[in-house]
Design goal:
There is one protein chain. The protein has 3 domains: about 130 residues, D-Maltodextrin-Binding Protein, domain 2 (3-Layer(aba) Sandwich); about 80 residues, Periplasmic binding protein-like II (D-Maltodextrin-Binding Protein, domain 2), CATH 3.40.190; about 100 residues, 2-Layer Sandwich (Double Stranded RNA Binding Domain). The chain has 12 helices and 14 strands.
Length: about 350
């Protein structure tokens, strides 16, 4: 673990210590959230670098080195050990099971949740030649690519944003394209590398993709009023509602963040007021079979957009997951695990 400076507790005017992975994307995300949290206060931000097992092993598939939580466990431990005051996660990497000592205190406004194709010569998915080589480390992306284009040669890749982009766009590129989250590309200033934003009808996002999650210890929230107030002010109810439904679906399916499962919640305005629409699917890794569906519920953001298991969004996600399981999603996920 390394520090960007020296700080003790943030609650006496010293830096707000944020635990983060040391990748460019993680540092950018954590810095942006930190600046939003301390805006208008006397506090500054200190980023504390935490090394995770996913960072140390950039070759093995995520499922082989721990699957769900591979980028989370060490950062959470730093929080529990009081080495940091809060942690910022890419929410799609966050396990759905709650921890008693930790509160998911804030969802900042969500970035674009779509997946992005970054291809040589600016090609779109439709324009890629027969048998084109496309890289992704995500079974969900790989399966949906093959569903749309069974002829593609989809290859597993790992690495940070630049490493993956270079596989398709660098001088020594060995792939025709790679697929990454649009949100990450935008946060690190690499939006120009996107040749096509894949529509959700073609590539449904991972649950919570594009969203960030800020965790703090329950004790800190109870003891420091300014801290909890700033987290509440930065929290976005629309993001919280959508992501809560998506994560409830993932938990009910008993699927990890690396499973071939997709979910996307969005708020729509209609004659009945605000409606939360949730779309989801489970898909075979080769794209040959998919179970998909959607569900809707009327929502009052002020009263219903909570993250607990008793909330309206959570119930919607659990309901849709049960429907998918009844239609064969469990068999698909069992095959994927095998």
């Amino acid at each position: 673990m390394t520090r960007a400076g020296v700080g003790t507790s943030p609650f006496v005017g010293s830096p707000l210590r944020i635990g983060t992975r040391a990748s460019d994307l993680a540092l950018t995300q954590s810095g942006q959230v930190g600046e939003a949290l301390v805006a208008g206060t006397e506090h500054t931000v200190e980023l504390v670098h935490v090394s995770t097992s996913g960072d140390r092993d950039r070759i093995s598939p995520l499922a082989q080195i721990g699957g769900t939580g591979v980028f989370v466990t060490a950062v959470r431990q730093a929080l529990l050990d009081a080495e940091v005051d809060l942690v910022v996660h890419s929410c799609k990497d966050l396990p759905t099971a709650p921890l008693e000592e930790i509160t998911l205190a804030c969802y900042p406004p969500r970035e674009d949740p779509r997946d992005a194709l970054c291809a040589r010569d600016g090609l779109t998915l439709e324009q890629l030649p027969q048998g084109a080589k496309v890289g992704t480390g995500s079974p969900r992306r790989a399966a949906q690519l093959l569903r749309a284009r069974p002829d593609l040669d989809v290859q597993g890749i790992r690495g940070n944003v630049e490493t993956r982009l270079n596989r398709a766009l660098g001088e020594d590129a060995d792939l025709d394209a790679v697929v990454l989250a649009a949100s990450g590309l935008r946060r690190v200033g690499r939006e120009a590398a996107i040749s096509e934003l894949l529509p959700v009808e073609v590539m449904l996002p991972a649950p919570a993709q594009g969203a960030l999650a800020v965790e703090a210890t329950t004790a800190a929230l109870a003891e420091e009023p300014w801290f909890g107030q700033r987290l509440s002010e930065v929290d976005d109810p629309a993001t919280r509602a959508a992501v809560t439904a998506e994560r409830a679906l993932l938990r009910t399916l008993e699927a990890g963040c690396s499973a071939p499962v997709a979910a996307y919640g969005e708020l729509e305005e209609g004659e009945q007021g605000t409606v939360l629409r949730l779309r989801a699917l489970a898909i075979r890794p080769d794209g040959s079979h998919v179970v998909e569906g959607e569900a809707r519920v009327a929502l009052e953001l002020g009263a219903d957009a909570l993250s607990g298991a008793e909330s309206v969004p959570w119930a919607l996600g659990a309901e849709l997951a049960a429907d998918l399981l009844a239609r064969g999603a469990g068999e698909i996920l069992a095959q994927a695990r095998a």
